[in-house]
Amino acid sequence: MNMVLQQKTPDARVGQIIKLAVMAVGGQGGGVLTGWIEGLARAQGWTCQATSVAGVAQRTGATIYYVEMAPMSEQQPVFALAPAGGDVDVLIAAEMMEVGRAVIRGFVTPDRTTLIGSTHRALAVSEKMVPGDGIADADEVRAAAELAAQQLILADMEQLAVGQGSVISSSLFGALAGSGSLPFPREAFEEAIRAGGKGVEPSLKAFAAGFDAAQNGVQAPEKPLAKPAASLTGPATELGKWQALCNRVSGMPTPVQEMALAGLTKIVDFQDCAYGETYLNRLDHVVTLDSANTEWQLSATAAKYIANAMAYDDIIRVADLKTRRPRLSRIKTEMGAKDANLVELTEFFHPRAEEVASLMPAKMGAAWEANPRRMALLARLFNKGRRLRTHTLRSFLMLHFLGGLKNYRLKTRRHEVEVGHLEAWLKSSLDLVSTDYALAVEMLKNRRLVKGYSDTHARGLTKFATVMGAADLLRGRDDAAEWMNRLREAALQDPKGEALDGALKTVRSFV
Amino acid sequence: MAERSFKAEVEHLRKGDGDVFTGEGILAITKALLENGVGYVGGYQGAPISHLMDVLADAEGLLGELGVRFEANASEAAAAAMLAASVHYPIRGAVTFKGPVGVNVASDALANLSSSGVNGGALIIVGEDYGEGSSIMQERSHGFAMKSQFWMLDPRPNLPSITKAVKDGFELSEASNTPVMLMVRIRSCHVTGSFATRDNVPPPLTVKDAIANPQSDFNRVVLPPMSYVHEQDKIKNRWPAAEKFIVENKLNEVFGPEKAKLGIVVQGGMYNGLIRALQRLGLADVFGKTEVPIYCLNVTYPIVKDEFDAFCEGKDHVMIVEEGQPDHIEQQLGSYLYKAGRNLKLYGKDVLPMAGEYTGQVLLDGVTAFLKSAAPDMLPSQIRAPNMEAPAIPDLTETVPIRPPGFCTGCPERPIFAGMKLVEQELGKHQITGDIGCHLFGSLPPFEIGGATMGYGLGPAANAAFDGGGERRAISMLGDGGFWHNGLSSSIGNMVFNKSDNVVVIVDNYYSAATGGQDVLSSRAHNDTKSTGNPIKAALKGVGVEWIRQIDHTYDVGHVRDTVREALTTDFKGPKVIVASSECMLNKQRREKPIRNKAIKEGRRVDVPRFGVDSDVCTGDHACIRLSGCPSLSLKRLDDPLRDDPVAHIDQTCVGCGNCGEVADAAVLCPSFYRADVVHNPTKFETWRAGLRTRVITWLQERRDGKRLRLEKALS
């Protein structure tokens, strides 16, 4: 080849360019952070260039800022306008899935990249709208980040900042300073915040928190010790009954105890100790069908879902929970209200004819439910949105009264329906124990599908019935339990049940 | 009131000879306009040049001092038409909008302007919205320059080059009597840097002076036979004049060694990316001193054949770096080479991809592929024979969810779509078209309402095929921005004229919100220099719409639902238009938050609402989220072994818009939502009354607590 040019050694000064990218969710103040970094570099006598892609990305979409800087020289260096895979020195990701996105895009490489990430989650719509649990797996992202980064700083930067009355840009800027990846002293960073001039004091505090997190790491929050058995107060007779119930739980197989105690607590809180006894009786029956060979899986599962089924969400429960004493102080803390502030509460209720009828005595309720004209009358009288201002006496008294109807609850139509449903579910599940233990466990777990109020609750019941009904198709197959699990997961994927229909079609194709 | 204020930065526009300006690209462009004696400016907002419009609006005081007229045009077409002032008068004018959708809208005026030719310099500053973060279809504005014969500048993306391009653009325009388009890419609009400033120059002839002495010349009117003459004039006179100016003033640049067997031709805007690729290959130093000759096209149209020929002299391999498709430049250069019968190998869209953004990695791969073929010895040894495997990093593409933009916290448009979703659950799915604007987010999950967008203000026009009616009425969305941009005539007028039986929902958030909250005709805000407060309803009546429903509080989901249902089911024949109005929450918060904080500090009574969820009442079915998608309405996992699914949770960013409660009510969801009004500086009576209530409530609670076991601690 007729070459005039030869290979050259790369210019060492190109290596001095520091390339820094910020990946954020719109509205997180990525622009402020970029402004600080730029101001810092210029104040330290470096030449610096920043770019961003604004546009609609600011409306909560993923967005990216990019900064390059180099020591000042006689000429202006040529900087790139966008980060390139394998060529980023510092990557700041302001949210855990943005950490993942940075890794996917190749901006984090083991040979050079310091990755500063916030572990908090701003859930994407696709994660939130799933009827089940659609939250993405942060541990997978963390594992990949550990492999991809040269230096990794992960902490809940959002919490560090909010704890100081500031926003995440400040704690991330602190972590950047603490990471030592820019050749500037801490004071220079703080000076950049002061030069910005807005919310300086809280920003500096959050900066310090971020700095410490980068330098000393963040202590993983200690796993809360197993909860001490609920310390209770109450009338002596009730406490005595409670102790007796706890003793019954202690007599159960060890793997069942934890869930049984949690279930018992929920049940007694929902109704009373006598109802707790009914719960334990039901559970005892399951235990007799179970054995240590299967590590008491059936009983532990039953302990959980029987409790959930018995503590159904009726008006009495909601009214009780809404009028309890600790609620207001919890809300005050959550809202950051000070002592001098007043907190006024508005509850959003929308009772339908169905709820009103379900509150009637069992026989009467059944009769009304069966009579469309009476239901229409109830709808006319009650079916409308009601805003209850529960800080006022009138609304509070009404809810307080409803919440106090516990003694009457077990006579209601709702209770009758719930008991019928519960017993049918338990029976069809437990009938399978002798032939297919694993399938029986899965059947118990299907109770998870029953949730929500009104229409959502009705849809949940339909799905529950559909999935339970599939037992007839699956019975006798080796993989019956596995398929039952798959059907349930499918039912939790979307509200309309399209995934469930698809999964059922598959099942029908092979039976 | 625009989303971002440039009041502070605008002071930098007063800098003069010997000063240095440091800041963002769009501000630098504004400064350059003033330094070059511009007489009038205008434009229409849109990413990435929204901020340029905001800067101009905030700089109106300074513009006035200099005698420069600023017009916030009704559309890109209106902006381009304004350049007509430069046809007869020796006044420099500049307009700005986004490309290529803005250029699409402006193309009628641009074509006429190009045919007429200009006397004063006419500059069209186009923010090319291409590549990452772009919100539109991926196309190039380049083709418009080719078809209408105006010139296109694509300067290197640094402030000195961009500001020089403004000066060059005006001079080139005047030297060739042709409008000039200055293209700035999405990142160069926001790139920061410095340049040496000059004094601002008032226009030698102001528009005010000009209308005192009106001029006209029918030879410039686009009518036969003059239009035939214009076409000849473009080719015979204006083009050669432009080429002469480009060559004599060295608008294009050549870098690197004079003698080499290979070279690269690059669009100015891609220069930095190319240099970075060469830097990474050890073929360019930190300042861009390159081992590979580069012909940098700061003017991408027209291509000066002689300059290109000279660059190719003695070369065997030439590569073209041209982002986007079609490959207009490559085709042109290939044609030159072929016709000259040259034996030179041309590279371009073979080593680089035909479509997609030329990112750092793409350019590195492309240049490497070019050199592997043209001069393999130049490549560093590890690229010729890599000896280290890149470490395997787990694939996260299945794990990490996509994060498209969506409605902001408290957005008044969310309840409109929640209401429509409820109607959909009731009456079934309808044919729905969207439009341009924030409301297009309604087409995304969780709402998935609207299946097409044909252009700004064209939502209802896009349903015109269904105007004849049928079993179910078609619905179209239209924003207030789109309504005034084009919608009133092209969409609403079209419906009235064609006796449409369909339904339009006009989302009126008081601003052109998606582009950054600029005022429009119907904005409620007082604006010193613009006429606001012109109701959409009045305009609708004016064009003959009879069925109009005005909703003044979109957060009333039930009302929205009932109104939409009524529009779909009424016996009324003819267009049915619902105007759903509530202020953009981003703007509202920006305006009200400081006022509120000040009031709290001053001891005045302020009520701050926020929503919450009782996590023990929430069952974790997430139905509320499927009717909302609010960023502040999220999920949290409870530390409760009995619970499988995360429950709804509202974080501290909630602005208390009310949507959650309304949806819970209208859709009959669940009673777990509550609104907490924190009253700051309550009145004495309120405090006394609250004390009384608390005493009674506490007494009742304690009485009940005394009779039962209290397990709250174990449960929470």
Automatic annotation (TrEMBL), chain A:
The keyword Repeat does not apply. InterPro entries: DUF6537, IorB_Oxidoreductase, Pyrv/ketoisovalerate_OxRed_cat, Pyrv_flavodox_OxRed_cen. Coiled coil: none annotated. It comes from the Bacteria. One of its GO terms (molecular function) is indolepyruvate ferredoxin oxidoreductase activity. SUPFAM superfamilies: Pyruvate-ferredoxin oxidoreductase, PFOR, domain III. Residues 256-468 form the DUF6537 domain. Residues 26-212 form the Pyruvate/ketoisovalerate oxidoreductase catalytic domain. This is Indolepyruvate ferredoxin oxidoreductase beta subunit.
UniProtKB/TrEMBL annotation, chain B:
The keyword Chloroplast does not apply. Keywords: Metal-binding, Oxidoreductase, Pyruvate. GO terms for molecular function: indolepyruvate ferredoxin oxidoreductase activity; metal ion binding; thiamine pyrophosphate binding. Gene3D superfamilies: 3.40.50.970. The keyword Metal-binding applies. It comes from the Bacteria. Its EC number is 1.2.7.8. GO terms for biological process: small molecule metabolic process. PROSITE patterns: 4FE4S_FER_2. Residues 609-640 form the 4Fe-4S ferredoxin-type domain. This is Indolepyruvate ferredoxin oxidoreductase alpha subunit. It comes from Sulfitobacter noctilucicola.
